Amino acid sequence: MEKFKVGVIGGTGMVGQRFVTLIAGHPWFQLTVIAASARSAGKTYEQAVGSRWAMDVPIPDEARDLVVMSAEDDVEKIAAQVDFVFSAVDMKKEEIKALEERYAKAECPVVSNNSAHRWTSDVPMVIPEVNPEHIKVIDDQRKRLGTARGFIAVKSNCSIQSYVPALSPLRKFGIEKILVCTYQAISGAGKTFETWPEMVDNLIPYIGGEEEKSEQEPLKVWGKVENGVIVAADSPAITAQCLRVPVSNGHMAAVFVTFKNKPSMEEMKQIWADYKGRPQVLGLPTAPKQFLNYFEQTDRPQTKLDRELEGGMAVSVGRLRPDTQYDYKFVSLSHNTLRGAAGGAVLLAELLCAEHYITRR
Ligand SMILES: NC(=O)c1ccc[n+]([C@@H]2O[C@H](COP(=O)([O-])OP(=O)(O)OC[C@H]3O[C@@H](n4cnc5c(N)ncnc54)[C@H](OP(=O)(O)O)[C@@H]3O)[C@@H](O)[C@H]2O)c1
Question: What is this structure's pTM?
Fold first, then answer.
């Protein structure tokens, strides 16, 4: 099969490096362009990344000697060379919004890891197993942008990918309220213990903007496409506290939930075991075979032991039990830079290719 030609905008950064690593050897995608700021443009990828390379594998051969282009100055040139781009730039929100729209209007689909467009009403925010049907709003987005190929699709924030997957198949029981505390890894801030030594033996009870995202983004993911926009769900009520913990990778969530029609614990576990999303049905290359994995052991899932399950794309659940104030409580874990960031965006791109929203030029 002829591969899709792919660009990575912000390819020198922490998330961009993860994209470069995941695209190398991907059965459908060929890394064709890497772009970053004007500071990196004109250098080879190896020179531009320098000592910032943070992956635990070497720089892939197909990336090493690519000459980095300028994400802002070379939009048309890049759009002409690729079938779509992944975006992971660190710029001001309004600048990212404008830049991603420039790519879309240059007829280059954008699959973004950034939060800038998450609340643009005709931009789908997709967890591929949960709300794949939202991608149909792209038809209306294209009308607004005046494009035939170009559009923007985004993934959700990494924190919600630790608990929304387990709750989604339970929505048929009428979820009334959710309380969630997340315990989030330092890589979510683009950091390692070397670059953030203050996090060793520490916990910081504040992550700017994260609690708002954790409470609001699930409602867009659980929303409906109506009249060319995504209308967010108006329930359940969600309250969240998000803590930064001394863990390199993996966001754990402690979840409390109450239903209108309370299911039994056995029913919940069976639903998790049986759950198959569109990526599993389509057999997408990055899709985990088993999306939701329930652990019966009382001390699992553990971040270090279970975050890499199915290439870091599966979600692990455990400790389901009755609660004194809510119906039930349980814990749920996902890998924040794989499922929660670049891996989730790669899976979204695979879905968009399989559903013919991304086509070869
Ligand atoms: N780290 C995570 O786990 C995570 C998770 C979810 C979302 N995010 C989001 O993903 C984005 C990238 O995060 P990151 O941690 O990868 O950031 P990062 O390591 O600081 O990398 C930023 C990237 O943006 C590029 N860039 C900066 N200014 C630019 C400009 N004016 N024009 C073009 N490119 C520019 C940089 O290029 P140079 O190398 O040339 O400077 C670099 O490639 C951010 O929006 C962040 O909020 C991160």
Answer: 0.97
